[in-house]
Amino acid sequence: xxxxxxxxxxxxxxxxxxxxxxxxxxxxxxxxxxxxxxxxxxxxxxxxxxxxxxxxxxxxxxxxxxxxxxxxxxxxxxxxxxxxxxxxxxxxxxxxxxxxxxxxxxxxxxxxxxxxxxxxxxxxxxxxxxxxxxxxxxxxxxxxxxxxxxxxxxxxxxxxxxxxxxxxxxxxxxxxxxxxxxxxxxxxxxxxxxxxxxxxxxxxxxxxxxxxxxxxxxxxxxxxxxxxxxxxxxxxxxxxxxxxxxxxxxxxxxxxxxxxxxxxxxxxxxxxxxxxxxxxxxxxxxxxxxxxxxxxxxxxxxxxxxxxxxxxxxxxxxxxxxxxxxxxxxxxxxxxxxxxxxxxxxxxxxxxxxxxxxxxxxxxxxxxxxxxxxxxxxxxxxxxxxxxxxxxxxxxxxxxxxxxxxxxxxxxxxxxxxxxxxxxxxxxxxxxxx
Length: 434
Hints:
The strands form three sheets. A six-stranded parallel sheet has the order 10-9-8-7-11-12, sandwiched between helices. The chain has 14 helices and twelve strands. It is 50% helix and 16% strand. By secondary structure, the protein is α/β, with parallel strands linked by helices. Helix 5 crosses helix 6 (110-120). Strand 7 (315-321), helix 11 (325-337) and strand 8 form a beta-alpha-beta unit.
C-alpha cells in the first residue's frame, strides 16, 4: 500500500506537469504561421521534465527513511543511476530545441539565437551554468570515470547538484509555463517540498540523533592487518534502534576525517556499544587507525534493508567474502541469540585476513572457512561457489540466503545461486559500493 501511494504521487505530479504544458506551450504545436513552434513546445516540455527528474534524483539519494526502508538503499541507487543517464536527454533537448525553435521564429542563425538567449534573456546564463554542473555530476557517475575518483571527490561533485538547482530555479519561474498563477505556486511548492524532505532527513536528522546520543569513539581494536573495529559509546544507546545487517554513514569530527562514509554495523544491537569494522583501502580508511579516542561521531542512519525482517524461513545460509563479513557477523549473532539454524561460509585470500574467529567461538559458530590464495589443511581451498554450497550445505533450498562481499565475488556467487535454481525471494544482498 505504501509503495502504491508513492507511485501514485509520482504519476500524479507527472500528470500535473503535462497538464501545465498542455495548457501553455503545447499551443505552439497547433498554432499556424509560427515557425519553429514544435521545437519550442517540446523544448519547454523537456525543461519541465528535466527539473522534475532532478528532484526525483534528490528523493532517491535523500536517505528519506520511509522511502529507503520500502525500496532499499541499493535499489534506490540503481534507479538513481539510470535516471541520471536519462536526464542527459532532457538536459540536452531543452536548450537545443528552444534555440532551434526561436532561431526559426526570429529568422536568425542557431548561433545568433543561442548568444541572444545568454545575453538578453533573464537567468538563462545561470541556467547554462546549472546545466554544466549537472553534466559534471553525471560524468562523475559514469563507471569508468568513477573508478578513478576518490570517494570524497565523487561525493563533492554530487553536492554541486544543490547549487545547480538553485541557479536554474529563477530561469524556470521567469519564462515558459510557470511564470504566474497556480502553475507558479505548484512549482514552488514542489521544489520546496523536496528540499524540505532533504533538509529534514539528510541534514537535520543526523544532528538531532547526535544531540540525543552524543556518540563518541570509546576504543579502536585491530582485528587483522588492515582491518580495525571502532567501538562507539553514547547516551542512552538502547534508544538508538537498528537491525543487524544495516549500515550507517559516519562523520568523524576530527581534522582531516570530516567526510561522511558508509560502514556496516559489525555487532548486533545491544545497550553497551555500537561497532563498525573497517578495512583500510583508500585515502580515508587508511587514516582510521589515527582516529583519537573520544572523537565525536555523527551517525546518519541506520540504512539498508539487508536484514532478517524479509526472511520467511527459519533456516539460514550466510555467505561472506573479505570485509563483507561485517554485516554477516551481526546477522549471525542475532541468529544465534534467537536459536536459528544457520550455516556460515566465509571466504578470504589468506588465513591472516580472517577476522572474528574468537568471536565465532564465543558465539559457538563453526564457519566453513575458505582461502583462495593459500593452501592450508585446516581450511577449504578456492572460492565460495556452487560446488561448495552443494557439498557443505545440501539443504540450501530450505534456507534464506544472505550474501555480502566484493562485487566480483557477489556476481559470481549470484550466478551460481541462479544455476542452483534458488528462488530470488530467498536471496538477500546489497551492494555497499557508491
